[in-house]
Write a structure and sequence with these properties.
single chain; 459 residues; alpha/beta; Arc Repressor Mutant, subunit A; Transcription Regulator spoIIAA; 2 domains; 19 strands; 38% helix; globular; disordered N terminus; binds S-adenosylmethionine; binds iron/sulfur cluster
Length: 459
């Protein structure tokens, strides 16, 4: 027993450190660092005009404001202490909605609306009413549309939750990260458990039953024990989904992360243990593992989409949204269209200046070629279902499975370590390999500059 235990520990350390690589999260393919100014407003307008009026679309709106900075934060946001900049932004956002609607070939149906940030809860209740009314004026928002909001529980009152419910919000994702006071102090996010518990109660009382909690591992001072008690506390709130993100420490891109003392960060092996133990505990507590970092109750849409092969991955992570077009609104928002990806200008002054002069604020993007579409499909299948059959994908979208399989040699170490099985052109990521699925996906990434520092750790 003893010998087996220590052998397991050595193997664990070995694997965690061996695969401590930096790879993209693949919320798109090609990934955002490969977008360029070669795609601008003119091309985007052409893509919009060519959309099929019979196809439903989805909308993502970015609200890039928060009232205090969490030191771990990797999102595009700006700290504001006053409401005036938010008001000015909303005036511009309203104009962007009108410009975008005017560029479409018809009034399109919208079945999903996602509000992210930053903290969309920086908006006032009246702002929600005005924005959702405007979107309803320009799009056919279906009666059963999913209207999802990322919610900072520290900004939220019961009156606020009631206002969200009134405008039709029916799904929320609450930023928790961890409940432990020492961890919270080290990330500048004071948020007692009782605050989150109260918000969950208000949401349910006002009919918003679909609740996701965002948790993180790999944060300063986190240990396996603390991560497990974080998971237990989260599950006690009875969410339908939990997202468990590995802290992406990229201080070369997000300078406020330098405020985190690196000596307090768990190393590669400890991160791996936190993830695997949390995954095990969530399984014991009745959650299905979905893709890289999501967990869902068996009756939640993510679990059923996974079982039926309809799970998708987009910029918001894992989703049941099957629309082929996601239109992005707001500074830095990314859109995904059949022809390719576009991203709005991120600096607020660039974003506003474009719209004030009657232009869509498209700053960059990428047009997809046939090889991109093929690899995108392979990578999405891997990231969602942890398996792909290259022959089936090539038969469906066209392509040469033999040429795709040329990259499989790179996976030999993962096969030897029992993290991946390869059977001809079929690739299957094992349960043990789930944390490393980004590395398997990266074997099909034709743009990847191996070892580039800009990405976060694989686990
Ligand atoms: C836009 S925030 C959620 C809404 C709201 N701003 C809040 O924090 O309550 C999106 C989520 O991204 C995750 N996140 C942010 N920075 C991250 C990082 N550096 N690494 C991993 N996950 C991160 C956090 O779990 C966070 O809840
Ligand atoms: S984690 Fe959320 S609240 Fe904190 S700074 Fe980032 S976007 Fe704002």
């Amino acid at each position: 027993m003893k010998g087996g235990g220590s052998r397991t520990r050595i193997t664990t350390l070995h694997i965690a450190e061996k695969y401590d690589l930096r790879v993209p999260r693949y919320t798109s393919y090609p990934t955002a660092p490969h977008f360029s100014a070669a795609v601008g407003e003119e091309q985007y307008r052409g893509w919009l005009a060519a959309l099929d009026p019979a196809e439903p679309i989805s909308l993502y709106t970015h609200i890039p404001f928060c009232d205090s900075m969490c030191w771990f934060c990797g999102c595009y946001t700006k700290i504001v202490g006053r409401y005036e900049p938010i008001h000015a932004y909303l005036v511009t956002l309203h104009e962007e909605i009108r410009l975008l609607a005017a560029a479409l070939p018809a009034r399109l149906e919208a079945r999903h609306m996602h509000w992210g940030g930053g903290s969309p809860t920086m908006l006032r209740p009246d702002d929600w009413l005005a924005l959702i009314d405007l979107l309803r004026a320009h799009f056919d928002v279906t009666a059963d549309a999913e209207i999802a909001v990322e919610l900072d529980p520290r900004d939220t009152t019961e009156a606020y939750v009631a206002a969200l419910a009134r405008v039709g919000v029916n799904r929320v994702s609450i930023g928790v990260q961890d409940f432990d006071p020492e961890v919270q102090a080290a990330i500048n996010r004071d948020q007692p458990f009782a605050v989150v518990e109260r918000v969950c109660g208000w949401l349910r009382a006002h009919g918003i039953q679909r609740i996701n909690l965002d948790l993180m591992y790999g944060l300063p001072h986190q240990t396996v024990e603390r991560v497990l008690s974080m998971v237990d506390l989260a599950v006690s709130l009875d969410p339908s989904r939990i997202a468990l993100f590995g802290y992406a420490h990229v201080p070369w891109m997000k300078s406020h992360q330098k405020l985190i003392d690196e000596a307090t960060l768990p190393g590669a092996a400890e991160r791996w243990r936190q993830l695997t133990e949390a995954t095990r505990r969530l399984g014991e507590l009745g959650f299905h593992a979905v893709g890289l970092d999501h967990f869902a109750r068996p009756d939640d849409g993510l679990s059923t989409a996974l079982t039926s092969g309809r799970l998708r991955r987009n910029f918001q992570g894992y989703t049941t949204d099957e629309a082929t077009t996601l239109l992005g609104l707001g500074a830095s928002a990314i859109g995904s269209l059949p022809q390719g990806y576009v991203q709005n200008a991120a600096p607020l002054h660039d974003y506003s200046r474009a719209i004030e002069s009657g232009r869509l604020p498209t700053a960059r993007g990428i047009a997809l070629n046939a090889d991109d579409r093929l690899r995108r499909r392979v990578i999405e299948e891997l990231m969602c279902g942890l398996a792909v059959d290259l022959d089936a994908v090539c038969a469906d979208v066209g392509g040469d499975a033999e040429a795709l399989a040329a990259g499989l040699g790179r996976l030999t170490p993962l096969v030897e370590d029992g993290l991946t099985h390869i059977d001809g052109h079929r690739i299957l990521v094992t349960d043990a390999g789930r944390p490393f699925v980004r590395i398997v996906a990266a074997a099909f990434d034709a743009y990847l500059d191996v070892g580039e520092k800009r990405h976060s750790r694989a686990v």
